[in-house]
Amino acid sequence: MSDAIANHLNDPRITGFVSVTxxxxxxxxxxxxxYLSIFASNEAGKGKTFAAITHARTRIQSFLAEALxxxxxxxxxxxxxxxxxxxxxxxxxxxxxxxxxRRNEQAEEPVQEEES
Length: 116
Prior knowledge:
It is a single chain. The protein is α+β, with helices and mostly antiparallel strands. The chain has a domain at 2-81: K homology (KH) domain (GMP Synthetase, Chain A, domain 3, 2-Layer Sandwich), CATH 3.30.300. 51% of the residues lie in helices and 21% in strands. It is built from four helices and three strands, in the order H-E-E-H-H-E-H. It has helices at 2-8, 43-55, 57-68, 82-108, and strands spanning 17-25, 31-39, 75-80. A three-stranded mixed sheet has the order 1-2-3, with helices on both faces. A hairpin with a 5-residue loop joins strand 1 and strand 2. The chain is elongated and about 80 Å long. The termini are far apart.
């Protein structure tokens, strides 16, 4: 699916980087929820990219059907994976707190004078 999005969709609305973060296939194989992480320069670009991918749903399903060689190809439903963004935000906050803690520890260290 990632290959179909990255290499077979020639839509100028797709900007930035798109990653399939997870796919949840229903037990009957008739449908699948596809979660995407979209890195674009701004929210408008992210929205346009998502719109282009959802618009190309049937084309992506065709590529998937060829790859699966199965009797059924699930109907795809796309979602923006906000959990991935939240994880990145938490990691950024941890880095900030760690940096602040290091700076505070360095400021508290006594200055050692050199003996002559």
